[in-house]
Design brief:
Number of helices: 6
Order of helices and strands: HEEHEHEHHHE
Structural class: mainly alpha
Shape: elongated
GO molecular function: DNA binding
Helix content: 40-55%
Radius of gyration: 38 Å
Number of strands: 5
CATH topology of the largest domain: DNA polymerase, domain 1
Protein name: ComEA family DNA-binding protein
Number of domains: 2
Distance between the termini: 132 Å
Pfam families: HHH_3, SLBB
Organism: Roseburia inulinivorans
GO biological process, one term: protein secretion by the type II secretion system
Amino acid sequence: MMHSVEKENAMNRKRKVFLVIIFCMGVFCGCGSRNNVYLEKIQTETSEVPQTEEKDCQEEMGSCMVYVCGAVENPGVYELPENSRVYEAVAMAGGMTEDAGMEAVNQAEFVTDGQMLRIPTMEEVAAAQEESESNVDDGLLDINRASVADFMTLPGIGQSKAEALFQYREAHGRFSSIEEIMNVDGIKEGVFNKIKDSIKV
């Protein structure tokens, strides 16, 4: 009988040891699983940060579409970053051709979204200068007869403003007074005050 009791006690000890081993393995596996989940979460958050920042930067930059034509190698519509200048738009179009009237173009001027940027040829510049002389016989520029090149001879008027003046006149007809040019986009009172003594209708 004593032998039977000792045998049963030995079996109970083995069961306890076995249960302790199983418990320890469960705790170890559980900790490992939680650690893996934590590491995966950190990796996911880390990988998402650069993508979000990159997306925000792209949204902040913005862009504008410009139609570059005339004396350039590859006329067409080009997308440029905001605050780009004329020389950058011309470069996108392959640069100016050999007969381009380069000196008539302000290449440092900013381009705007939806702008048509036309580079004149040297022949066109010469013809415009001749016409300009006939339009200013009394020293004043007739804004109802002026070409884009004529408008660009006025102080503070670059190519984009000159084109805006020309296109406004084409769309609305003759200017009824010199003050009417302030209805043109980009021509405000400050610009008008610079040129009012140099123009007529």
